[in-house]
Design a protein that fits this description.
Blueprint (H helix, E strand, L loop, with lengths): L2 H22 L8 H25 L5 H30 L2 H13 L3 H10 L8 H15 L2 H31 L3
Length: 179
Amino acid sequence: MRLPLKVGLLAAAIWISIKLAAFYLSFSLDELRPFVFINMFILTTAIAISLYLVKKEETESNLLNDVKNGMLAGVPYALIVSVFLYFYYQKIYPAFNESKMNEISMKLTDPEIIKEIQRENPDMENKSVEEIKRDVLAKTKMVYNPQFTMLVSMLSLLLYATLNSIVITLIFRRIIFRN
């Protein structure tokens, strides 16, 4: 198994361990932001470490191979973390989805929020309160669906891994290894 692949798999295992530890310790379960930032940090670190280790061993390399080595760490990470998120929100912690739906339902009981929704969305101006609630809850249910979460996280992590591989490769080539 190639070194960048090992680094990507290890990084995915670290993030999954952090997410499960937070779940078992009931730490910040309904907050997404800290885990998103931890996820981004671990992915960036995995790409940087794998590129550094490969660049240290290689005598000759080109830009495309360096980006490929970064992606070799990032893609498995993105796939494993995304699939884990599906199982996490489907089987391990489905109460997250229910709590978000209840939170939105409670907000929709406020007439001011309904008026604000009508002002912001021209399509909602002529709808009744019940129709607005139904539409907003349907959209919310779709957003907090585990399959949707997996798909969005996979796409965003793959894009993030690609951009990070390019940027980190350029930084390593221009600043650290001066090729």
